[in-house]
């Protein structure tokens, strides 16, 4: 994808996530009380409401739960990206996240495909965790 795409805006709940991405690490939250791993990053456990959370580095591997091929860009910045794949990824750690599938074979994505994280450069100093099919080629690294 492109340097011209929007850059992420970190907030206190997501700063570690974006800092990790900049270093090619996929960071997710884990509850110290009940062990639940969750995404998006937030300050309360969505299962037990504990605030005792920690950051863990995910393996970056997962499975496609579902996907959609976007053929009409929602924002003008993405107009030259279509068609692209938006997918729900079940991480091996047990939580689900939304990301794009990148790579030359992205449009061949199917439910249950194995995928691994890659990091798409945005601007000079940001990266966005995205995924490639494990049989695919890595773009955006
Ligand atoms: Zn919990």
Could you please describe the fold and organization of this structure?
The protein is mainly β and 141 residues long. It has a single domain, classed as OB fold (Dihydrolipoamide Acetyltransferase, E2P), CATH 2.40.50. It is built from one helix and eight strands. The strands form two sheets. A five-stranded mixed beta barrel has the order 4-5-6-8-7. Strands 2-1-3 form a three-stranded antiparallel β-sheet. It binds zinc ion. The site of zinc ion (ZN) has 8 residues, from loops.
Report a brief summary of the structure:
This protein has 141 residues and is mainly beta. It has one helix spanning 15-22, and strands at residues 27-31, 37-38, 53-57, 61-70, 84-91, 96-102, 114-122, 126-133. The chain has a single domain (15-133), classed as OB fold (Dihydrolipoamide Acetyltransferase, E2P) (Beta Barrel), CATH 2.40.50.840.
Layout of helices and strands:
Elements: H1 15-22, E1 27-31, E2 37-38, E3 53-57, E4 61-70, E5 84-91, E6 96-102, E7 114-122, E8 126-133
